[in-house]
Amino acid sequence: MTQTPMHVAVAALTLVVAGGLVAGRQPVAAPPPAAAQVPASQAPPASQRQPSEVELSISGDPGTPPRFAVPEFVALTPDAAEVAKVVSAVLWDDLNFEREFYLIPRDTYTTVPQARAPGQIPYNAWRELGADGVVFGTVSKTGNDVRVEVRLFNVRSRQSVFAREYGGSASNPRVYAHTISDEIHQHQRALRGVARTKLTFSSDRNREKVGGTVQDRDVKEVYIADYDGANQRRITVNRTLNITPVWSPDGRAIAYTSYRKGVPDILVAYIYEGRSENPTAGRGSNFLPAWSPDGKRMAFMSSRDGNPEIYVMNADGSGVRRLTNHPAGDVTPTWSPSGTEIAFTSDRAGRAQVFVVSADGLGTPRRISIGEQYADRATWSSGPNNEIAFAAQTGPGYDIKIYDVSTGQTRQITFGEGSNESPAFSPSGRHLAFTSTRAGRAQIFTVARDGRDVRQITRDGNNFTPSWSQ
């Protein structure tokens, strides 16, 4: 069974006591060679709206989602073939992830003649296959630059309802697919997609041991990845415990707990600038940072006054104030979307449970995990649903449950396949990332908020406590 954040916090306290992609975009500075940061940002390419675009939405048959086909993009130059293949394959996956459209399986496209220009699209053949919409794209390559053009056609009306052009580096073709997917979701369904978002998590995959400790402890480093698990990259390299990473609201920084100096403290890595800050500056033992929705403040757990309590500070470390004051341990804070409340875990009821308190510390914390044996690691949805997910003990392991703030009702979305912990909402609130042992070791998975569509994100080593960028 993996350790919950309450376990991590207690264990940590015990340990302390014991011993430019596109022209026109702002370039992102590359980090210095000595820093183990992300290379120059691979920001999404700029798109240009076509003046003649017809603004229409494609609908499916009554009661069913629109059926989309995404055939392989056409390579207009011989050296663009691989890019065209990647963009179309990733776009199919990205559109399929949100479940707003039914994506016709690509292995059925063999019956449809391939078109090399919009005027050659065989609408009758696509209609026979059941398609309501078909994506047509082209890719051309000049040196290290590519140009991607894409259109979405209504098969019934044979009209182009969406058209975009993108230009930039060929180094990461996936970013074009992610951008197209998010823009199609916004255009067709008024939905903010997550294809361009990223995950961060801690991992022991390097199989290194922490130096200078009595205990035999594995090094844990901070990693990031695309939302679907691609492009996994290591952020920290200090060969110690680096845990509980969380994205800043602007996606430019990651705050995490580090034992770099022996005592747990909060560090902030500005991953596209090659620098880091230490806002808590070693004052006591500090864990579990959580950014406020506006990024101006940070809640965290600290034992600086002798007991694990929740504190709030400005993002630069100034203005520290204590939020909770109870003999029990208070850990794992998470902010409400409005920034006016904070949920946290406390064992003030005898065992760990989830409570909510005003962000100014006034009033009595109210318990929301009613009827649970043990509840920990709350995460508040930033999407429109106003929900709090948490890990609850359900026998020997844990499962993910979601509390609806407006109704007070709780539902369960995982059911005993391994131990399921540390949930983190996507920015839309439609998905969660979480840690699970269902595949043997602790790995990161994603799941829709209705409990469907579970996907494994990591496979190497053990991976913990995901956070989803905004």
Cα distance, first to last residue?
A: 29 Å
Specify the CATH homologous superfamily of the largest domain.
Answer: TolB, C-terminal domain
Helix content: 10-25%
* Low-pLDDT segments, ≥5 res: 1-44, 49-55
CATH topology of the largest domain: Neuraminidase
Q: Give the number of DSSP strands.
A: 31
Query: What is the architecture of the largest domain at the second tier of CATH?
Result: 6 Propeller
Number of domains: 2
Shape, principal axes of CA atoms: globular
- Level-1 CATH class name of the largest domain: Mainly Beta
The structural class is mainly beta
Write a structural description.
With 470 residues, this protein is mostly beta strands. It folds into two domains: 5-22 and 32-37 and 196-468, Neuraminidase (6 Propeller); 47-189, TolB, N-terminal domain (Rossmann fold), CATH 3.40.50.10070. The chain is 11% helix and 36% strand. The chain has four helices and 31 strands. The protein has helices at residues 5-18, 81-97, 123-128, 174-189; strands at 47-49, 67-69, 74-75, 102-103, 133-142, 145-154, 159-169, 198-203, 221-226, 233-234, 242-247, 253-258, 265-270, 275-277, 286-291, 297-302, 309-314, 321-322, 330-335, 341-346, 353-358, 366-367, 375-380, 387-393, 398-404, 410-412, 420-425, 431-439, 441-448, 455-456, 463-468. Strands 1, 2, 3, 4, 5, 6 and 7 form a seven-stranded mixed sheet that branches. Strands 10-9-8-31 form a four-stranded antiparallel sheet, with no helix packed on it. The chain has a four-stranded antiparallel sheet with strand order 11-12-13-14, with no helix packed on it. The radius of gyration is 24 Å and the shape is globular. The two termini are 29 Å apart.
